[in-house]
Amino acid sequence: MLTLKGEHIYLRALEPEDLDFVYVIENDEQIWEMSSTQTPYSRFLIKQYLENAHQDIYEVKQLRLVICTIDDAAIGLIDLFDYNPTHNRAGVGIIIAEKVNRGKGYGAEALQLIIQYGFTHLRLHQLYANISEDNLTSIKLFESRGFRKIGVKKDWNHINNTYKDELLYQLLYVH
Question: How many domains are contained in the chain?
């Protein structure tokens, strides 16, 4: 099992026992905007997803890890998605589920661990993130870890009857 440890959190592979945790996150309408989701997920579909979560990143082009506190409480998820081994890049997404756990540095530590994993183990050349223009917390988080804004996708997402820009952030591996 893949485990990446930091000072206050660790990242681990998804387990069947994560069904309820993932179900709550995937069905939280407040974060649907970040994941471009429009419909809820059933427990059945999430159970199927968890049964296949062991598949290799080279096969499914995605790696989802659970962010856990040192006392083993699952508090969030971090993803590498759109993994492209030809061009050595992947997207990064992160969510800390409960507001009570936000602003404590857990997200920054998780992001640093996934950056190190991506550049060291996957030999990525770049990571990128798509962030809504009004998600100031994520902008601050990614910028704190060296990501730079490289572009703006104008009127990219239609949310609550309004078009919002999406910002493209990128982190290049420097040898």
Answer: 1
